[in-house]
Amino acid sequence: MDDTILSAQGLNLYYGPTHALKDVSIDIPEKKVTSLIGPSGCGKSTIGKSIVRLLKPTGGSIQFNGKNIATLSQRKMRPLRPHIQMVFQDPAESLNQRQSIGQIVAEPFVIHRMGTPAARREWVRGLLDRVGMPDSAIDRFPFEFSGGQRQRIGIARALTLNPSLIILDEPVSALDVSVQSQVLNLLLELQEERKLSYLFIAHDLAVVKHISDRVAVMYLGK
Ligand code: ADP
Q1: Alpha helix positions (H), 56-194
Q2: With contact defined as beta carbons under 8 Å apart, do 42 and 202 qualify?
């Protein structure tokens, strides 16, 4: 049996009258790639956002590190946030366009009060280098980069606080086909290197079938 890093049981979530999650349960094994697939609108992103607690489920439990994080207040969730990170589909939307790349990637260090400005800059340089970005990127802005490069920046930001679990919400779907496999390969290298657990959300089995240790299928909120 695999060790489970996170176990969600009986999740329910309503957006007003829309019942987006209907008693959804999913176990995410440790240090493996789990894919969550299903058609657009079936509730995949809603699960991802519930797990990182951008959303609060209406019912159900999410066990992580021996705690039920589904019901934790934002304040009690705070110390756990570094461990569970999310990479979004569209880096153009998820990166703050007014911040330099250095500021974007260093922001989690600032929020969690880690390191001096000089130390943070060194850590950011290391992260940018690891995701294949040039050193000169640090003082430039998101609009100066391509979609693939922006997603690399989003990945660097997700890695800052050494997470154990990363929710990847269609991380290559918005990218040109020619760069999709490069970004996918980077994600897989990082997974192996850092023993990360991934929940890889996709609407298309073709993207994930070669990379998944396990596939979960979702349909109409279930
Ligand atoms: P998927 O990621 O599988 O495409 P989502 O989790 O984004 O699906 O959406 C699930 C359902 O919830 C859809 O019917 C969608 O229209 C609805 N939904 C998603 N986000 C919101 C929101 N912020 N407000 C209202 N309804 C939403």
Answers
A1: 74-77, 91-94, 101-111, 117-130, 147-159, 177-194
A2: no
Residues 6+ apart with CB under 8 A from 110: 120
Q: Is the CB of 20 under 6 A from ligand 1?
A: yes
The pLDDT, as a whole number, for residue 209 is 83
Does this model's pTM top 0.90? My answer is yes
Query: Sheet containing 59-64: which strands, arranged edge to edge?
Result: 18-29, 4-15, 59-64, 67-68
Mean pLDDT of the 210-215 span: 92
pLDDT tens digits, one per residue of 30-47: 999 999 999 999 999 999
Spatial contact of 123 and 114, defined as CB atoms under 8 Å apart: no
- Map tokens 């990363």 to a residue: 166
CB of 42 sitting under 6 A from ligand 1: yes
CA atoms of 69 and 53, how far apart (whole Å): 8
Substitution site in 22, 42, 46, 88 for ligand 1 pocket (most atoms within 8 Å of beta carbon): 46
Locus of tokens 């779907």? 173
- Residue 171, SS3 per DSSP: coil
Q: Which amino acid is at 207?
A: V
What CA dihedral angle connects 3, 202, 56 and 19, to 10 degrees?
A: -120
Q: How many of the other CB atoms lie within 10 Å of CB of 139?
A: 10
Query: Do the Cβ atoms of 121 and 101 come closer than 8 Å?
Result: no
